[in-house]
Amino acid sequence: MLQIRDLVKVYPGPVAALQGVSLEVPKGMFGLLGPNGAGKTTLMRIVAGLLEPTSGTVYFDGEDIVDDPRRIHRQLGYLPQDFGFYPHLTGESMLRFLLVLKGVQAPGGVKHLAAELLDRVNLSYAANRKVKTYSGGMLQRLGVAQALAGDPRLLVVDEPTAGLDPEERLRFYRLLAELAEDRTVLLSTHIVEDISVLCPRVAIMYAGRFVAATTPVEARNRLAGTIYQGEVEQGDLATIEGNYRVTQAILIEGRNQVRIHLPEGPPPTGFEPAEPTLEDAYLLLAQANGEGGSADAGRAASSDVQGEGASDARREGASAGNAL
Amino acid sequence: MNSFTRWWEVVRREFLTQVRRPGYWILLVLMGMLAFGLSDGSVTIASGGGEAGRPHLTSVFGQSRVQAVLIVSVGGLFLAIFSGLAVIRDIELRVGEVFHATRLTVREYVWGKFCGGVAVFGLIWLLYLCTSIGFNHILHGGKGHIGFFSLANYAFPTLLFGLPQLLLFAGVPFLIGIWSRRSLLVFLFPLVVLLLTFSVLTTWSPGWLSPEVNRTLMLIDPSGFRWLTETFLKVDRGVDFYNTSPLRPDLGFVLSRAAYCAAGLASVSVAAASYARRLATGASDSPIVRLFRRRRARATAGPPSGAPLRDLEMATRPLGFARAAVAIARSEVRDLVARPPIYFFVPLILLQAISTTTLGYGYFGSRVLLTPGTVADQQVNTLNLLICCLLLFYTVESLHKERNRGMHEILHAAPVGTGAMLLGKTMGNAAMAGLILLAALVSGAGIIVYQQIVNESPVGYALFPFVAVWGGVLLPTFAFWSALVTAFFSLLRNRYAAYGAGLVFLMYTVFRQETEGTPGWLTNWQGWNLVRWTDMGAFTLHGTPLLLNRLLYLSFVPLLVAVSVRWFPRRAFDAAATLNRLRPRALALGTLRLLPLAVAPIVLASLLFFGGRSGYQRPGVNDWREAYWQRNFATWDGLEMPSVTHVDLDLAIEPAQRSIAVTGAYTFLNHRDQPYEELPITAGRWGSIEWTLAGEIHEPEDRANLFVFALDGPLAPGDTVTIGFSYDLERHEGMSRRPGGTSQFILESGVVLNGFEPTFAPVPGYDPDIGSPGFRGPEIEDDFYLGQTEPLIGWAGRPFTVRTRITIPEEYTANGVGQLVSEEVADGRRTVVWETDDPVRMFNVIAGRYDVIDGDGTTIYYHPAHDYYVEEMSATLDAARKYYAEWFHPFPRSVLKLSEMPAFSPGAQGFPTNITFSEEMGFLTQRDPRSHLGFMVVAHEAAHQWWGNLLGPGRGPGGNMLSEGMSHYSTILLHEQVYGDRYRMEFTKRLEEEYVSRRRVDTERPMVKSMGGAYNRGSWAMWMLQQQMGRENILAGLRAFIASYRDGPDHPVIQDMLAVLRDFAPDTAAFDAFAEQWFFEVVLPEYRLSEVTRVQEGDEWVVRGTVENVGTGRMPVQVGAVAGERWSDRGDDADRSVVAAGYRDARTEVVLGAGESAEFVIRAAFEPDRVVIDPDVLVLQVNRATATFDF
Description:
The complex is a heterodimer. Chain A is an alpha/beta fold. Chain A has helices at residues 40-47, 70-73, 91-102, 109-120, 136-148, 166-179, 192-198, 216-222, 237-243, 278-289, 295-303, 311-323; strands at 2-11, 15-25, 28-33, 55-60, 63-64, 76-79, 104-105, 154-158, 184-189, 201-206, 209-214, 227-233, 245-252, 255-261, 272-273.
């Protein structure tokens, strides 16, 4: 169990990256969703023991991570958002070096294990190439391989699917899902699909606070019957935006595919009821917490949601919603 | 936005970025300190100094000298690093692609980066100049070395010396940085230039160097210092010239400076092209760097396994400290080996270390025979400094590289302790240092083997000196330095700040060493000059403090590591939490936690501090000297003492205890006209001294160690009285405070004592040298020598006899002045009695564990391992004794001894019958087929038996020349006598080279006004005087000279010698003219040939030309038309001294004064191939190498 209490992080400036967040993350996959600058990476780095918070506590299985980050390093698999490797080493050498440092052991030895892990992330063919020749996606996969290595009790992955093609992304989903069966996986992303596919629970961050903690299903259910979709001419979009809460508007071949949130009343002409998505919920929350946001929309997406083991997040979300 | 605006934006951005870098601020502070130091006079560069009479620091020559050196030595390194890293940093930050997706062109970007960086350095240089001007003309305006203000004096050197260096040091590393994208390679350029400049380009100027090569070196020296020195400072132009004349560069030099500017700018242009090409092709490495990469076959992608991860049965068991450190270290080593810089740095350092050793010269220009100990000793400082530089760069880069490559979060999240991580990195870098040491070890063996083959050296290789010196000194230094740099990095958390802090720490250390000498044991972290190697017992003098010093700096390592681990940026600190940590209470608690680790350094530092303060260099140990001077100067200075007629000494020496028990007596004879009521005697700080007067116990008045004996009755002229003394003393008691040599010692490795000063025996009378505040007395009158002159060396009055009885452990041989009267060994102790068979003016004692070689009335006592040259030395000593006795005065003593002493004491001392030689002289002189330098050293010291002993020179200007200059002159004669003309010419050329290269033309005084020894010009003047007077005349004159002064009590100077010689001169007018210019003035001819032609007329060849004396002085000089080589290098010495069969010459003579020229015609019966001025090396001159003409 990962327990985060009243975590505050203020960067010189001052910039309040985390404004007293609290969260309890049990075993299994837990998603952190939020826009850029929401504070996700700051939180992940604090959890990984790489950043000192201004105040607050982080415990993992009862051990204080803030006080002594070395405690978490023994049981951590970590994939940062931005990373690199020694360019002069081959992929296999690089991975082997990290396996040795982490103290990872396997029946066939470290060399064999490195080969197996590279195989799992589909890098066997480039095992003997120097890292400096790797593409962005290959580097990301090498990063994934080192994060999965060993038997980490806590896996912290920050934007893990960035740079992965769809096939690799699916492969990664499978690996993460397997790992999440008996350990805690904290996944941070702004890609809603990652959360939809992988996470039974999700917390949504905005401007250094949790604004919601829920499950993707509940978030969708809460919006059931309130989402409509239709096509709008470019010239009419402004009118629709003025009168309705638009969750998404995508311009395709000169016409806008528009989704609106309408809890009450009839939809505009040409709009049909649509299945709510997690993305609708996320975007509504984002709009609610952003400038000119609607209190109703925020409540719809957050204040009513229920999330197992997310009482503090719920409280945060509620307060955020109520504030709007 | 036009191109200029875009370029300007890059310049502005780069300027603002760089100007914030801590390294530049550190440079600014450093330059400010240098400006102050130079202005204050505490820092000097070359001959620019604070002494009155030197050229002004503010003159164009003074500023040129300073600016030429400052950029290459200080600014270049900073400039190169910041310029070279400018684009690398953008590549690391991955901003390049964003930039180049805009309209910003590569050319605009590259030139903008370059100009921005250069602008920052330019600003710092401008501030430095302004600060210098302020310090020089406002703060220190009245000082003697500060002249009038002229902006041009600052601006012109900047333009001529500064700007080309600035562009070069910014441009080339900039290109290297862009081309290689390796930050370590960027450091290579300034380091190479720095080493080349100071080890070769500005300093290496042997006399045999051809003018063309010299000129080439002037032009390729980027600092311009060589050109300045060779063109202006080696030629006598007088202080006024340097202070007031403008500096006019010749066309070649201007072109070379322009070439350097062009090279710097061209480098930027090439860098832009390289950058553009790489951007277009997407290659990340240069073609050459790619050569270091192994090629591997490309594998193709196959379907990945879908097996679950749990099948891998992975488990995590964090590594222990040691295994983690080793894993990191192995990775570091792999990284080091994979990168090219190591392959440049290691050979470079080796080259420098080896050249330090192999190009080194000993006394009088002799080449030293290298032993493992001397190789280790000579290379230790070079290796120390260079490896420390390298460790600074490698350590910072190593600590920064994960962040640089974006890998820090992954690595820092690994279950590896920070301590293990830092240790691993340190071990990796230490491996690099170890590799260099190993290579140096091998090269050291190579040097020894080379000597064995080429020089027939019997010296074998031994590992112990290397292990003792390098292991003992260097390894603790490297450990401390690595830990310190790591701590800098951890505390400052910035790569550039760490560089700046490290460089400043290193530069400050070097600066202190240069200005204040070798630091004491407490602060000598670098281990500079810690060991003074001697094969006779290197650690017998400073063993304990050396050990404590090394342990002290090793003990700092855990403390620094703890600080590093605590502050290493593994977890990014929170600003508020950091402020909390810096609160006094938190800081105190943090410090308390470190206290256990500080115990060892505190204890060791205390031992060194208090040990040093209670040892023989303790504070106040010399206070008695000041009190001595204060209490006695007014009363006793100038007292003419009665002569000592006999010295009786009974010495019990305990080398292991560094102690000696002294009992003795001096017998005084009043040889003067007036009676003495009191007799003063100066003693050292020896504790309780028991005195006797005329055999009765006596308590003289103690006036701060001047003991004044009130005689029972006046000592009438012709009367004698005996004063006795008895005491025990310990020499070098306790621990020293700083490393260094010592001239007199009682150590297990040997004993060296003399009676010049009250070291172990009292000195009659008042000693004006003790405690004198060193004020500059009035100019000594020109006629000071008239009447009776006190001796320069030894005691006043007449010569005396000495009996020395010495007891010492039996393994030692102990020598005193005179001949051995008795020797016996009983109860493990040897007792010897030495008595003089002819009166002397001074005495000494030397003891050691010796082997002995006897000659014809001579004996040499030497360290058993130093038998390489002793037979030649013995033969030389025999020859010296024989011929000097014939030429100057019969040698009145039965034996002439020469004993070797440990290298703690440099040089040699020619005590009567008992010469002492440091092991660095003679005993370890290399054989050289072209000259006989070992011969020269022995011949010179043996000559002191005549010049310094039989003839005791007077105290005052021109006195020392009669000792040193005359000994060198004697050596010229002995060279000629023993080895013939060829070797005499070689030797006199060496003296000339040494004189020309070492003279300070702006401060050189005539010999009759100089207190110096005038080794070279004095001997040359006598040699030239011999040509004028004739050999027999001058030798007869010198015999008469010694005979007239031998028994004192008057002691002569140059004028006295000239007065005697004049009577033997066949042409007194010519003699006077010669003496006037060579002894009473400073002159130095410089001859140049021009319009030289060679025409065949009938059977003969006619050579015509013009010779001009562009120097000073008027001398007859021969001009020779020459064909063939004069000497053969085949066969033995005798063969090589015979004129070669094919050699022919025809000569004429011209007499030229300063600025005069003359046409000459030489008719030869052969076809000459060159014209040579002064073919027989008979006239001292500058630039002899240019005074030839090849057809």
